[in-house]
Design goal:
Elements: H1 14-17, H2 21-27, H3 32-42, E1 45-46, H4 47-53, H5 59-71, E2 75-80, E3 86-91, H6 93-96, H7 99-125
Antiparallel strand pairs: 1-3, 2-3
């Protein structure tokens, strides 16, 4: 007697279909990775330092991303009540725990981005 074939029931919740999707949503939004990379690599920074270091990000978007990262526990904001006020941002231990993931991705990029580029060129060169 043949074993019954397994049938897959469609999963309506993306988090159940792919358990890493919440992590991807948190860490890999458009500006999150450069912000975390900068804070991890260069340490505590003021808003203007982050803004200068991450080209093409607008102040509004940087503010939004920093607030979200603070809410997620990946970045800590420190307000210094001076004249003028000074605000600094730094990566938290939780944010630092992503360093191995970023290191693996950087290694993958070094090893494979040229292959991705060649695949794209080959694909684009094929007639439709």
């Amino acid at each position: 007697m043949a074993a019954a074939a397994k049938t897959r029931t469609p999963v309506s919740d993306p988090e159940l279909a792919c358990p890493i999707s919440p992590v991807v949503d948190i860490v890999f939004s458009r500006w999150t990775t450069p912000i975390l990379w900068s804070l991890h690599t260069y340490g505590r920074q003021r808003f203007v330092e982050l803004e200068r270091g991450i080209s093409k990000i607008t102040p509004k978007v940087l503010t939004q991303r920093l607030r979200q990262l603070e809410r997620d526990g990946l970045v800590m904001r420190t307000y210094h009540p001076e004249v003028p006020p000074r605000v600094e941002y730094e990566i938290t231990e939780l944010g630092r725990s992503l360093a191995p993931l970023f290191a693996h991705l950087a290694e993958w990029a070094t090893d494979n981005l040229d292959k991705v580029d060649r695949a794209r060129q080959d694909y684009d060169a094929e007639p439709s």
